Fold this protein.
Amino acid sequence: MTSVNHPSSAADEVRRSFGARVHSWVVSVDHKRLGMMYVAFGLFFFVIGGIEAAMMRAQLAQAAGKFIDPTTFNQLFTMHGTTMVFLVGMPILLGTANYLIPLMIGARDMAFPRLNAFGLWLFVFGAALLYYSYIGAQGLYGTSAAPDVGWFAYAPLTSKTFSPGNSTDYWILGIMVSGFGSITTAINLVVTILVMRCPGMSLMRMPLMCWMMLVTGILVIIAIPVLTGAQAMLLLDRFLGAHFFDTQNGGSAVLWQHLFWFFGHPEVYILVLPAFGFLNEIIPVFCRKIIFGYSLMVAATVAIGFISLSVWAHHMFAIGMSPELNAFFSATTFLIAVPTGIKIFTWMGTMVGGRIHFATPMLFATGFIAMFTFGGLTGVMLAVVPLDWQLSDSYFVVAHFHYVLFGGTVFGIFAAIFYWFPKATGRMLCETKGKWFFWLLFTGFNLTFLPMHISGILGMPRRIYSYQPDRGLEIWNLLSSVGVIFQVVAVALFLWTVIDGLRRGKIAGNNPWNAWTLEWSTTSPPPEWNFDQIPIVGSARPLWDVANPHDPDSRHEEHI
Amino acid sequence: MSVVASEQPIWRPSRGKAGMICVIAVESCIFLTFVVAYLFYIGKSATGPQPKDVIELPLVLVNTVALLSSSVTVVLSVKALERENFGAFCRWLALTIVLGLWFVGGTGWEWKGLMQDDGLYIGTNLFGTTFYSLVGLHLLHVVVGLTMLSIVLILGAFGLVRKRHAHSFDMLSWYWHFVDAVWIVVFTTVYVIGR
């Protein structure tokens, strides 16, 4: 492989005025710029959502706290949940896919570049609409500000009677608009992966992350429209007097729950499958081994995709469904733990006997495996119907899903940022700061969420702004709140690491981690056209083949 | 960076086809949501009018025939464009639009009767809620389809549609077939099962 010196576009950028530079980003249809903007917007909202969480923890640090009033607390947990799912998880994961997929499959861009830009700006507009509610939702009624109905917005709390003003409308429209953005991006991803692969790259030679993103894209295509449809019904209820969720006229509040969770449960796999994908790229590289069980991993991913569509009502055990339904959804929930477990063992099988190098991405990947497994196990506990009746809507549930979404998805995101930052910017992030960041975040995360299991079992309910003293809850809540301090310091350190890395980071070169997939064959950052010549691959590890022409992978390929 | 030349070319769908299949999948999921809500609420209206009192099948059947025939005419239009017979392309496309407009007008006529004679509005009862939203969602898709077909017709009338656009026009016709196919589902739900 020859290294070609590209005319440096960075030097041109310095000479242009600030306005021209902003303009070039706004009008860009380049998948790399759009991907970076997705991630940047996502990190921005990660900080906002984190501030909201920190305020709630400040209120709950002591019994009968007086820091914020109940109305504000309702708005905070609604906005925190909505922000973290729709404005942090989705854009960062879809944005990373946007950046990496064309590079990984040897394409010059996504299948539909302009649709790609359209999706990003729909997302930004939806996010702005949601947060504008703080100012705009007062409306003619003067009764509300930000949405305060919880991130799953159960009926009939969302009806005009119980939620006057426009706060719920901002929630609906903000999510709907950003949802259309996610759908367009998902369509783009699926089509890109199916159509744009370079010569020689069969489906079973794709980097595993592409498989995860393919299944994620298909899940987005199936799940998000159901939420959009349900939200359209809610809008009809609120503005045209329809009765979908109006219990006084025969409507059903339970229908909303079914529709919401039919979206909501695939959504958690939408949020975690891409993170699985990051691990599949990172772990083999830092163990210096080929992934253990490629086809097993693909099969497990596809199985998760299918089963995730049939587990939704395990969020609804407490509403009094029939025993048959309870048994069915309990069984499917146990079942989905099997392919997920296969993945955990596949990663561990990759690590066994490898020369493991604990750089920051690998630290986060290992942290992911431990924390996600922990959260997965409490998930299996919650699939036991009687136990769920006991623990539903308690802090145990909060602890459970933060272990999978924070300990899982967010750790995966940070692993990905530390791993691919050199590719995207051409500079390395500081390893020392990165390791401090990991250990601070890991400590703070466990200090916050581990005690929540206990306060939940002791009976602390979700979404209540206060609790009484002398119920044995004080110490656990105090520990949870102290953990937030560690996390705040950690995130501040992370932001400093990124800014410092952008300005003074070590120059990375094309392939700083000595990895094997196509994105590392081009320059860092890649030119706008990605590859001077469209690559031709003969195995799942094309760069290994180039480095070891005497023993290429293609010679050992399993033929399926 | 070729190491081992690929043994055989890999099958790939066209970009347009894969994209349109994804769009159709998204739309199907939205429709399914409303169909599920419709089926869920059949017979649960507390007050009248009930479906069996107000639905007039003959009018709807005529509309259905018009919409389903438009699927045939749009295929003829695509074929004509592929053969570079631009006159036939425009005529069949115009007929497709007329048939689509017939469906829109017929549905408008049906709704006018339901509202003025039977007093059925979206807020009257659960039947009204689910009926107007499901049929209305479909109508919205017909209108979107007609808008896109009309744009093609206007461009075609000015001679701007050439043979190289045939694939794109074919993809548009897939959308139109989808709108027709969904109507069969909506028709079965509303006028057969729900009646």
